[in-house]
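User: Teach me something about this protein's shape.
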Amino acid sequence: MRRLAPRVNVIPVIGKSDTLTPSELRDFKKRIMEDIEYYSIPVYNFPYDVDEDDEETIEDNSELRVSLNGRLERSCQKKALELNRRVSMSRS
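Assistant: First, the predicted structure itself:
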């Protein structure tokens, strides 16, 4: 993931999460986010622009940000924003 993160958007997904109890899922998410933070892996932060995006996009991206793990540290969010900006600029 560290090698891919500078080139692609990283979005943590837990497969078969419906087979876990709520506490197991919470603990698993916590461990994943701790590893992501420890290894400084930028995570896609579901950006939106209030001036340009429609209400549905803003709402969807806001919900996805929260569902990712509401506990993302600012440093991780900043890295994800920087990566997203670099990717956006390279696509222009």
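Now, about its shape. Residues 17-91 form one domain. Confidence is low (pLDDT under 50) at residues 71-75. If you'd like, I can walk through any region in more detail.
User: That's plenty for now, thanks!
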